[in-house]
């Protein structure tokens, strides 16, 4: 098994998607300081599950995302994909080539993928157990770690030897099994508490069940007693009903007789109502005639009043005419001498007019003769 390729996008100084192809044997990365050689190793460690941002020389885990430059904007995620050759089936999967990818967003969310299938960090770590690849494996040795291995105590070097011997895998499984046992013990304790609570509830339910049985028994007895009481009351009511029926029989006969009488009275009442209706029609007709007579009487009275008023007016006018006639006669008597003098004056005026006419004719003749002489 060996690492075939590394694909980096947005991790630290790798703003563009960068793919590094590796061959079997020894591969070396050379370059000046600051070109990103250490970033490649940190990208590999980060991809296989490194959770310590201090080991990645960062201020926080999100700081591994490309922060941008004066010419390029910062990125919102980083992604590293490692491709392993698994022809010898050292990794416990049925693939000849295994891809492990990790993706981190600026919001802090992290995703892991095995052969482009999303998985957990735990699945990635279990994949590389007993292979020397891991955060504490011997396959990745950082700067200064050789000196640490030389100067470390035997207890500290033991972890590397156990990883190389394949013991770390079983120790990890043992640790996980112990954690599971601890969780099982905690669950058992909770289960015991739940059983205690359930037993208390069962005791309470038993008491309630006994009470329910007693209630059911007493309810059945009460139902039977109530049924007997109801039957007795029904018998008493039947006897009372029979006596009432016997007492009501003569009353029913009397009621039938009264109904018969009422029927005859109703027939007579209907005949009277019919007669009354005809009389009412006659009364209405007479009232109409009376109303018409009253109207005609009122009209005649009105005409009589108008005639009286006209007669009074005529008498007044007649009296006034007589008075005017008397006054006219009196004025005529007083005006007779005046008329006579006026007639005489008129005759005198006529004579004068005739004399003036004669003078005029004479003067005209003289004027014509004078005119002819000229």
Provide the descriptors you would attach to this structure in a database record.
5 helices, Rossmann fold, 374 residues, 6-stranded antiparallel sheet, alpha+beta, elongated
General description of the model:
- A hairpin with a 2-residue loop joins β5 (110-114) and β6.
- The mean pLDDT is 83.
- 65% of the residues lie in helices and 10% in strands.
- It has 374 residues and is α+β, with helices and mostly antiparallel strands.
- The chain is elongated and about 195 Å long.
- It has helices at residues 37-47, 121-127, 145-151, 154-165, 167-373; strands spanning 2-9, 18-21, 77-85, 97-105, 110-114, 117-119.
Quick structural overview:
By secondary structure, this protein is an alpha+beta fold. It has helices spanning 37-47, 121-127, 145-151, 154-165, 167-373, and strands at 2-9, 18-21, 77-85, 97-105, 110-114, 117-119.
**What is the CATH superfamily classification of the domain at 2-152?**
P-loop containing nucleotide triphosphate hydrolases
Give the CATH class of the domain at 2-152.
Alpha Beta
Order of SSEs: EEHEEEEHHHH
How many helices does DSSP assign? 5
| CATH architecture classification name of the domain at 2-152 | 3-Layer(aba) Sandwich
Q: Tell me the helix content.
A: 55-70%
Shape: elongated
- According to DSSP, the number of beta strands is 6
Rg is 74 Å
Q: What is the straight-line distance between the termini? A: 185 Å
Strand order of the largest sheet: 2-1-3-4-5-6
CATH topology-level name of the domain at 2-152: Rossmann fold
**What about the largest sheet?**
6 strands, antiparallel
**Mean pLDDT value:** 83
Structural class by secondary-structure content: alpha+beta
């Amino acid at each position: 098994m060996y690492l075939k390729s590394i694909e980096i996008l947005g991790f630290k100084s790798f703003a563009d998607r960068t793919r590094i192809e590796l061959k079997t044997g020894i591969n070396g990365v050379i370059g000046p300081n600051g070109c990103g050689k250490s970033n490649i190793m940190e990208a590999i460690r980060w991809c296989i599950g490194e959770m310590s941002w201090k080991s990645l020389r960062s201020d926080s885990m999100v700081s591994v995302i490309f922060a941008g430059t004066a010419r390029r904007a910062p990125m919102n995620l980083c992604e590293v994909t490692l491709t392993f050759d698994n022809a010898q089936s050292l990794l416990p999967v049925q693939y000849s080539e295994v891809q492990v990818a990790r993706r981190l967003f600026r919001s802090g969310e992290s995703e892991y993928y095995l052969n482009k299938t999303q998985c957990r960090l735990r699945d990635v770590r279990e994949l590389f157990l007993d292979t020397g690849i891991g955060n504490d494996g011997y396959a990745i040795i950082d700067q200064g770690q050789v000196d640490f291995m030389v100067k470390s105590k035997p207890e500290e070097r033991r972890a590397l030897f156990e990883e190389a011997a394949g013991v770390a895998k079983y120790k990890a499984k043992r640790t996980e099994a112990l954690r599971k046992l601890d969780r099982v013990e905690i669950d058992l304790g909770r289960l015991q508490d739940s059983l205690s609570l359930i037993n208390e509830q069962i005791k309470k339910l038993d008491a309630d069940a006994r009470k329910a049985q007693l209630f059911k028994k007493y309810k059945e007895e009460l139902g039977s007693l109530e049924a007997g009481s109801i039957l007795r009351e029904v018998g008493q009511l039947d006897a009372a009903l029979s006596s009432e029926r016997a007492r009501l029989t003569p009353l029913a006969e009397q009621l039938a007789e009264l109904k018969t009488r009422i029927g005859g009275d109703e027939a007579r009442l209907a005949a009277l109502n019919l007669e009354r209706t005809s009389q009412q029609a006659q009364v209405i007709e007479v009232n109409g005639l009376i109303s018409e007579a009253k109207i005609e009487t009122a009209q005649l009275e009105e005409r009589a009043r108008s005639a009286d008023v006209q007669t009074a007016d005529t008498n007044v006018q007649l009296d006034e005419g007589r008075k005017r006639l008397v006054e006219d006669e009196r004025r005529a008597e007083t005006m007779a001498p005046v008329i006579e003098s006026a007639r005489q004056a008129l005759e005198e005026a006529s004579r004068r007019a005739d004399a003036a006419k004669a003078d005029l004719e004479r003067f005209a003749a003289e004027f014509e003769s004078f005119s002819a002489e000229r």
